[in-house]
Known about the structure:
Blueprint: H1 2-162, H2 168-180, H3 184-194, H4 218-228, H5 251-254, H6 264-295, H7 301-311, H8 327-338, H9 341-348, H10 352-363, H11 383-390, H12 407-420, H13 429-434, H14 440-455
Helix pairs in contact: 1-7, 2-4, 3-6, 4-6, 6-7, 9-10, 11-12
Amino acid sequence: MDLQEKETEIADMKETIFELEDEVEQHRALKLHDNLIITDLENSVKKLQDQKHDMEREIKILHRRLREESMEWRQFQADLQTAVVIANDIKSEAQEEIGDLRRRLQEAQEKNEKLSKELEEVKSRKQDEERGRVYNYMNAVERDLAALRQGMGLSRRSSTSSEPSPTVKTLIKSFDSASQGPPSNGASVTPTASAAPLPRTPLSPSPMKTPPAAAVSPIQRHSISGSMSAAKPLSSLGDKRPTYTDITIPAEHLLRGSAASRPPSALQRVSNMDSAKTISVSRRSSEEMKRDMSASEGASSTSLMAMSAASAPLSLSSSSPTASVTPTTRSRLREERKDPLSALAREYGGSKRNALLKWCQKKTEGYQNIDITNFSSSWNDGLAFCAVLHTYLPAHIPYQELTSQEKRRNFTLAFQAAESVGIKCTLDINDMVHTERPDWQSVMTYVTAIYKYFET
Length: 456
C-alpha cells in the first residue's frame, strides 16, 4: 500500500512538475513579450523626448524672432512718426517758400511793369532826340546851302559884270579845251581851295577835308558844273542834281580874292571843285550817319525809319558804288534762300554733299572720337551731331561727359538741343540707336537743316 501511495504521489508530483514547467514557460513568454513592450515604450519615450527638445528649440527661435519683429515694428513706428514730422516740416517750409515766391513774382511783375513804362519813356525821349538831331542837321544843311548859293550868286554876278555871260556852246568848248590842254589854272586854284577844311556837321565825328580839284576829271567837272549851275541854259548839261540836303561849304572858304581878277575858266574850276567837294562830303556824311544809326542801341524802329528817310537823300544813287544791288546779286540771294547748300558748294567746290561733308569736318575739328567721312556710319553713335551742335549751343550739350557707348543719350541730347531752337527732328531715335549704318539721305537732310538754321 505504501508503494502505491508513493507511486501515486510521484505521479502527482510529476504532473505538478509538468504543470509548473508549463507555467514557467508561459511566464518566460510573457516576460519576453513584456520586455519587447518595454523596449518599444522606451523607444517611444526617447522619440518623444527628442521631439520635445526640437519643439523647445523651435519655441526659443520663435520667441527670439518675435522679439526681433516686435523691436523692428516699434522702430518702424518711430521712424514713421519721424517721417511724418519731417514731412509736415517740409510741407510748411514749402508753403512758406511758395508764398515767398509768389510775393517775389508779384514784385518782379510790378518791377517789370515799371521798367516797361520807363523803357517806353526812354524810347519816346530817344525818338524825340533823334528827331531833334535830324531837324538840327537839316537846318544846318539848309543854312550852309543857302550861304553857298549866296556866295556863288555873288561870284557869278561879279564875273558877269566884267565879262558877258557864257553860253552853252562856249562852256562846252571851254571844257573840251580844258580837258586837252594842261590844267595850269586849275593847279593854281587848288592850293587855296583845298586847304580850307569843311565845317563839322552834327552827325560827323571829325572835321572833314575836301579833296583837291585835280582829283576831279574833266568829264566829272562837266557833269557837276551842269548840275550845280542855276541858270536855265545850263540845266540840260547835268543829269544829276544834288538835293537840298547835301552838305556844302561856305563860299568865302572857296572864293578867296577878287572874282573879277580871275578868268572865267578859273571860276568854272572853282565851281567844279565846289561841286566835287559837295558830292564827296555828302557821301561821307551819309556813311557816318548810317554808322551812328547802327550804333544807337535804344533807338526804336520808328526812329530808325526816320533816320534812314533823312539819310536817303544825302547819297547820290548814281555815283555811290554800294547804292544799288545788281540783278545778278539779287538772283544769287534768292537762289541761296531756296537752296542753302549752293553757296556752300561754291565755297568748297565739288558737289553739295561733299561741300556739306567738308563743312561738318571743319566744324568738328578738335573734338575727340569724331571722324566724319560719310553721312552714314560716321553718325551712328550720335557724337557727331553733339559736336556740330555743341559749336553753336554749348550750354545744351555737355560734350566732355559723352561717350560713344551711350548712343541713346547722345541722340536725345542732340535732338533736344536742336528742337530747343526750332529745328524739327526728322530722324527716329530708335532706328539710329539700333542701326550701324543709318540712311545717309535722312542724315544729310537733318544736317542740312542744322546748317540752314545757323549759317544762312
